[in-house]
Amino acid sequence: MIVDLGGFRSALPEGGRLAGLDVGTRTIGIATCDAGWSFATALVTIARTKFTPDLAALRVILDRERITGVVVGLPLSMDGTDSPRTQSVRQFANSIAAPVARPLLLWDERWSTAAVERDMIAADLSRAKRHALIDKLAAAYILQGAIDALVGTGLAGDAAV
Predict the structure, then answer these.
(1) Residue 156, in any domain of the structure
(2) Range of the domain at 60
(3) How do beta strands 27-33 and 17-23 pair?
(4) In terms of C-beta density within 10 A (0-12 exposed, 13-18 middle, 19 or more buried), how is residue 28 classed?
(5) pLDDT (tens digit, 9 = 90+) per residue, 1-56?
(6) Is 157 part of any domain?
(7) Maximum Cα–Cα distance for the chain, whole Å?
(8) How many domains does the chain have?
(9) If 0-12 CB within 10 Å is exposed, 13-18 middle and 19+ buried, where does residue 159 land?
(10) pTM of the model
(11) pLDDT digits over 85-129, tens only?
């Protein structure tokens, strides 16, 4: 079920490990956080093929990592409106909601990739290394924003959409 920030928090009264997803056209970056919702860590990037095998790979990871809730990055336009890419991610989230059987939160990810890319350039990572890491690091950035808001330390307020 897709819920707002308050509904997500209410659906997980005991906390638990969360997963963050950066859903792209070619890959899905995945990050996880600890059960206390302190910090997000980049986990893996799944190469996308077709929906059914993508869902199966995602479910294996969610089960293996004992994930209780999922945060999906929503790529809104800079003015906050939906774009074709936003609609694609919303459709993906709606399609996985029932099969993953966990609360799902859509989170504004407008700045995630740019912020992660900037940090990797500052760290002097090669273009190839940045390409290999960008999706799972963006997922960690998305997840960290959501867990900061969930525990009340979010600076930008409620960015759930």
Answers:
(1) no
(2) 2-27+40-150
(3) antiparallel
(4) buried
(5) 899 999 999 999 888 999 999 999 999 999 999 999 999 999 999 999 999 999 99
(6) no
(7) 42
(8) 1
(9) buried
(10) 0.86
(11) 899 999 999 999 999 999 999 998 877 677 667 776 777 768 887
